[in-house]
Design a protein that fits this description.
Length: 217
């Protein structure tokens, strides 16, 4: 009996073009369906993040004033410092909100129908027979700039080979921390194979390693 084909390193590629710190996607099981969706709100962690950034900015401002940085600009330096603070604090928060709103518009990211044995992706944009879905993949790779980013993908197997579909992204090189719990729990509830692919080594500079997870992760 011929074994099912498995992913090779040639099948792996990043699909995203906008990366932000990821949100912990929520898995909901109502008995008939298992859904993977974004949280309703992340204002509390966003406020915490803004507070941490503000603290670093306050330290920068203290040293800037102490060292009399930008004194040659006169009063205009306060406009410069204010602009730096606004961008440093509000920029990441706005990026996070845009990412969350994008996820919510395409929610649920995944929906497994136990009765029909189908898997729908990105708010039912596409629906597949469960047998044609190869795996749920947590992928970490370096992009064209050399930065290691992580993605959650669904990989479908058809006559042309493997086709990945992007579910969400994370500005992180630690794919297990980003998506490990999601992968193992979704696999346990649905039976969909979970896979992690990442570079070897602490600095993610080694060759790619592909691991098919057991049901216990």
């Amino acid at each position: 009996m011929m074994e099912d084909p498995q992913l090779s390193t040639d099948d792996l590629r990043l699909l995203g073009n906008f990366y932000s710190n990821g949100f912990a996607l929520v898995i909901d099981d109502d008995g008939d369906n298992v859904r993977l969706a974004p949280p309703e709100s992340t204002w509390l962690p966003l406020m915490v993040m803004a507070g941490i950034i503000s603290a670093f900015y306050a330290a920068f401002l203290y040293f800037a004033i102490t060292l009399n940085m930008g004194a040659e600009l006169g009063p205009a330096r306060w406009l410069l410092f204010g602009g730096i603070g606004l961008i440093a604090t509000a920029g990441p928060v706005i990026a996070h909100r845009l990412h969350l709103q994008f996820l919510q518009r395409h929610s649920p990211q995944l929906e497994f129908d136990r009765r029909r044995r189908t898997l729908s992706v990105l708010a039912n944009q596409e629906t597949f027979d469960f047998g044609s879905v190869h795996c749920l993949l947590g992928l970490c790779m370096r992009d064209s700039h050399g930065d290691a980013n992580s993605e959650l993908q669904v990989v479908v197997h058809d006559a042309d080979g493997f086709r990945p579909i992007l579910i969400t992204t994370d500005l992180s090189s630690f794919v297990r921390r980003s998506f490990g719990e999601t992968l193992t729990r979704f696999q346990t509830l649905t039976g969909l194979q979970a896979v992690i692919a990442e570079p070897e080594g602490l600095m993610k500079g080694g060759p790619m390693r592909i691991e098919y997870l057991d049901t216990d992760g």
